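Suppose a classmate hands you a notebook page containing two proteins, each written out with its sequence and a corresponding row of structure tokens. How would you begin to make sense of it? This section walks through that situation. The first entry is reproduced here exactly as it would appear on such a page.
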Amino acid sequence: MAKLPVVNLEGKPVRDLDLPDAVFASPLRSHVIHEAVVAYRAAGRAGTHATRNRSDVRGGGKKPWRQKKTGRARHGSIRSPLWKGGGTVFGPQPRDYAFPFPRRKRQGALRSALSAKLKEGKLIVVSALEIQEPRTRDLARLVAGLGIRGTALLVDEPVSRNLELSARNLPTVKATRSTALNIVDLLKFDTLVLTEAAAGKVAEVLQP
């Protein structure tokens, strides 16, 4: 098992925490991480784009002119795709872009990303993330006290309302709970901050 110091909110170590190698010492599988990112983003697409086909366009019920002896081409409706203002042929329609992605592969991608964070020294375990009042400056001071430079993902279990409200106005910080941890957030934020409770929950859920 890997040992990682648990620090307080001032960044001082208070004790050591054993992290299971099955979760935090997994080999890097970049292809699985890529597939997990593609699946996550595909599931998040709205898919609400739409164009009107000839059955959706208003009008065109009457034949514009008779079939023969006019010297013009034959037409049955002014809403044909050949006409200006007519329907669109094979245009986009509302659809769901999500596709099935195995749970074992999704968890494997999370294990690879967590292991990479630990190996790079960008994983911090704190005893707790307690904020007395929902103030953005208090959270900014807390993040600076932990020695974090750049973006940070704060993971707690559960996330307190004060922490959630305080992180909302910081563009470089996001607060989430361990059960909502996803591969895109792990790759987007530089430093991952786990509470002891969140680290235990993550290790429990991601055990192969």
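The notebook's second entry, a different protein, reads as follows.
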Amino acid sequence: MLYYKPAADSELNLHLMRLIDEQYTKTPFYGWPRMRIQLRALGYLVNHKRVRRLMQKMGLQAIYAKPKTTMPCHEHKVYPYLLREVQVCRPDQAWCADITYVRMRQGFMYLVAIMDWFTRYFVAWETRSNSLLDEAAARRKTFEMGV
């Protein structure tokens, strides 16, 4: 049985993603149309479909005020904020977590960190390769098959 093995990103795509990331850090309100104009101003002949695909792959989206974003949906359950009245006064009382990507020479690494609120020390952290989603999908398939 043959399986499709996805091709790695080309050097040009990695370079374009680096440029997009740098520009997005400066101007997070740029969407794919303005990002394409910026890349063309730098001398790269790219079309909107490539810029859009690369930005989607990186998880980047223009930040701007969207209409009616504060309108609650009454059908959805509203969960209470459990730490509103809590005074964090000892270690291991409250933790927070974050996941982010770190740009590398040949792609991206994902960093997951868990921090204690009181001590502000990292309780745990882990890095994964840029194939994190592929690994998760592979694990899901093995669980479904019962392996």
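A careful reader of the second entry would note: The longest helix spans residues 11-26.
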